[in-house]
Amino acid sequence: MKKGTIHVIENFYMPELDRYRTIRIYLPPHYNESGRHYPVIYMHDAQNLFTVATSSFGTIWDTAVTLDKLYNENPEKAYIVVGIDNGCNYRYSEYCPWYSEVGGEYLPHAKASGMLGGEGFKYIDFIVNTLKPFIDTTYKTLKDRENTAICGSSMGGLISMCAGIKYQDVFSKIAAFSSAMYFAEEEVKNFIISEGKRETMRIYMDVGTDETSNPNNPYFPQVYLSCNSNVYLTLKDVGFNSKDVKYEIAEGDIHNEACWCKRFPDMMNWLFTI
Length: 274
What we know:
By secondary structure, this protein is of the alpha/beta class. It is 35% helix and 19% strand. The chain contains 8 helices and 8 strands; from the N terminus they run βββαβαααβαβαβαβα. The longest helix is centred in the middle third of the chain and has 19 residues, at 120-138.
């Protein structure tokens, strides 16, 4: 099997937030030999994308393995993934544009650090105004919106939705896995309504029926199901139709990278229909 490569950039400066972050970039097989330029997918929680050694939560998406497999099945399916490490205690703050004291298993951490949302638009602006121009001048990318996607899970799904809706001129594709929309459901829905549909999009959403196995967590599966369904309906209300949005409910799936890894190929095949 032909394999891609991972480039790691440490201490990449985020001027919008005055912080530094590690960026992990997957390049497809034969990238150096090929004269091709490639679609780009921006992803969050990059520690969890490629190797268990860097994983924040103990499981990984195995993104490189999945993309290698897609390439070996059909070399036209070749993509660059730009993974942005989460900021640990900054994760809630950067992955939600609005302050909120609603949260799940990792809420105490964020609460203790005072980082409960509010920096999400600065984080989105970092991706669009700082990171993307760097990637487009450093790597062989297809720069146009038709070949630019943003993808994440849980809080990463929430911020992916906000990024894609805010910058419809930059992103044409959004993938939001098991999104923690409950963190700021009303704000997300109102934001979608205020922004509206300005461009044709492909938006993939999904949620498992067993998103948490923690019986003491008040945010039980029905919360994930209801908040994602409500956001999906809001997208429909502002004009995104069934060709624009795919919403999948994964029977029996829980809230972890192994489940997102399993659903990732179908998402890619739908988002990037060749």
